[in-house]
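Fold this complex.
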Amino acid sequence: MASGILLRVPQVDELRTANERYAATHPRRPLPAEPARRLAVVTCMDARLDPARFLGLAPGDAHVLRNAGAIVTDDVLRSLAISHHLLGTQEVVVIGHTQCGMTSFANDDLRGRIGAAAAEVDFLPFADVADAVRAGVRAVEASPLLPDSFRASGFVYDVATGRIDAV
Amino acid sequence: MASGILLRVPQVDELRTANERYAATHPRRPLPAEPARRLAVVTCMDARLDPARFLGLAPGDAHVLRNAGAIVTDDVLRSLAISHHLLGTQEVVVIGHTQCGMTSFANDDLRGRIGAAAAEVDFLPFADVADAVRAGVRAVEASPLLPDSFRASGFVYDVATGRIDAV
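Structure:
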């Protein structure tokens, strides 16, 4: 995985150009680190999802955690513990989505493609997104890193309609 | 961590109301799951960061991964392996930010606050965000789950100005 100037592609230049345009309009009013709505969102990395837009979140409102599948992994629990204990969030919504790539493969498919380095890796595919979201909510509820008062609820986002439905 | 109807607070109702407004304008043109710009972004969960806006990303452009600190954990490498091998991304940008909460505590502070359940947990705090981003880029480059051709670069986002700077 090479980096460095020789392998830099226009992608990075495009991001910098877009960022310069953004910075010209960046609000000068500082926001606190603590999320104003005391909310955390866990959702998928999927490129079609823009949780700030589909949940109506303003800058400063909520922590947003994203990984492949919106799965409540140990890394998500680490992040939620920091979110709650240091930055005051009181609630998380776990949001999976329809047409998720995580339903399209089995561990052995991906292990076969990557080779020996992946032999012991669980890529956490799932068959049913609503079940996966419910498991995520239960993982939050069961975590000893978060108090009983920390609320969790689950939703599925429909990539065709943009709607979230509770699970 | 209780969930369920009795403990539902207005927060969830507000999210649903905002989502109904969003869905009325959701584009009816379906987007493919594969990110159009073959790009993945790893950044922090911080509520002040809206990577789609500060990088000029359109829906469908890029996978977005977020956790506490923009740290390239095993969960991020799991997600990037899926992103690359199944969904065709060729490049990642790792973006930390100024005023990150991860520089404000030590593991023992948080362990003391949470108690015995956290005694073995590394919350991954860091002293310098640029160093942390460089470590993340190196973790991508060193991962056997990704090919040498998968590019990685690192940036720090300034929450005061909205600008990204390469590290």
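The longest strand of chain A covers residues 91-97.
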